[in-house]
Design brief:
mainly beta, Neuraminidase, five-stranded antiparallel beta sheet, binds calcium ion
Length: 370
């Protein structure tokens, strides 16, 4: 009679161990042996990730929290001073001059009387790291929509100090072609939210000057290619037609006039999937892999992956690795992760960090496995 009781207690103890104490797992891939560690758990649908200079991580949770996670996995209470969103927090990024100005950028969904919109702002992280001070908006998507979908949104700072902010079409596809809206657009601003004088539409009447490119469905992946400094963007297709684009100023990326996929409700989108007056994707997937965040790998921990583009697969539950030659994709590997992956980012230690999209979401870390 004693034995079952002991077993029950043992099971309870195991279940209550901190997630960070879970044993690491080995993962064999085509070009690298990986050890996957669970750095932290208990994060509710983590979405964005940024690395502080001291090795700690800023992480957003979709329901509207920003936390700090230490390198050894201690999760802080929510940081005070952040806005109170209606729906969700999205990305987080550090200012390129963070060491001097301590500015942290946050994108989220704002609720206005007329509906919902993707917005971005910035505030100063206090010395303790537990307060975002003087938070102010630098971008507010116009107009709003009542539809709670396709919000984007990622940040990317360019080497010349500009800030890209991605948006989605808010599930109003025609808005992506309407240059009087910020929906289905890639936005380029100065870090303080003012519009750079060399944006493509600054002199065209009736066009929002912050627009860099248009005809996008829902961009949740942005990354600057090392060496070239060029921005790459990843967007969700409808049914099929997930895309990688290299957005050029003023160009039209086609949604919803053309697509490599079809509408969610089964309506066909006219073929051919591109036209001479539109700019085609450089790579696309049908069926969809449904990826969100992405990053170029530039660390030394996985030399065979240097310069590769890594994508966080949601429905595909995978880390997707693309090999490139310039702006051409030359190969693809899907690394099964057995969880929806929301984001992948490279730490200051050159290791890779992944966020799982779960109620009890985790931060995973890839280390070389020999
Ligand atoms: Ca397209």
């Amino acid at each position: 009679m004693i034995r079952p009781v002991v077993l029950a207690i043992a099971a309870l103890v195991v279940a209550s161990l901190p997630v960070a104490g879970q044993p690491a797992q080995r993962l064999g891939t085509e070009k690298a042996e990986i050890i996957v560690e669970t750095v932290a758990g208990g994060l509710e649908h983590p979405w964005g990730l940024a690395f502080l200079p001291d090795g700690r991580m800023l992480v957003t949770e979709k329901p509207g929290r920003l936390r700090i996670v230490s390198a050894d996995g201690k999760v802080s209470p929510p940081i005070a001073g952040t806005p109170q969103p209606h729906v969700q927090f999205l990305d987080v990024a550090l200012d390129p001059d963070f060491s001097e100005n301590q500015l942290v950028y946050l994108s989220y969904v704002e609720s206005r009387e007329s509906g919902l919109a993707t917005v971005a702002g910035r505030g100063r992280l206090s010395t303790t790291g537990m307060m975002l001070e003087g938070f102010e908006l630098i971008f507010r998507q116009q107009p709003t929509s009542p539809i709670e979908d396709h919000f984007g949104s990622r940040f990317a700072f360019t080497p010349d100090g500009k800030l890209f902010i991605s948006t989605g079409d808010r599930d109003e596809p025609d808005s992506a072609q309407d240059l009087s809206t910020d929906m289905g657009k890639l936005i380029r601003v100065n870090p303080d939210g003012t519009v750079p004088a060399d944006n493509p539409f600054v002199h065209r009447a009736g066009v929002r000057p912050e627009i860099w490119s248009y005809g996008h469905r829902n961009i949740e992946g942005l990354a600057i290619q090392p060496g070239t400094g060029v921005l790459w963007a990843g967007e969700f297709g409808p049914t099929g037609g997930d895309e990688i684009n290299v957005p050029k100023p003023g160009c039209n990326y086609g949604w919803p006039l053309v697509s490599w996929g079809d509408h969610k409700d089964g309506r066909a989108i006219p073929r051919p999937p591109t036209r001479p007056d539109l700019t085609d994707a450089i790579y696309h997937w049908t069926p969809s892999v449904s990826f969100s965040g992405m990053t170029f790998y530039t660390g030394s921990a996985f030399p065979a992956w240097y310069g590769n583009l890594l994508l966080a697969g949601l429905a595909s539950q995978a880390l997707i690795r693309l090999t490139l030659a310039g702006a051409r994709v030359t190969g693809e590997e899907r690394i099964a992760m057995d969880a929806r992956i929301r984001h992948v980012a490279q730490g200051r230690d050159g290791l890779l960090y992944l966020l799982t999209d779960e109620d009890q979401g985790r931060i995973l870390r890839f280390k070389p496995g020999g």
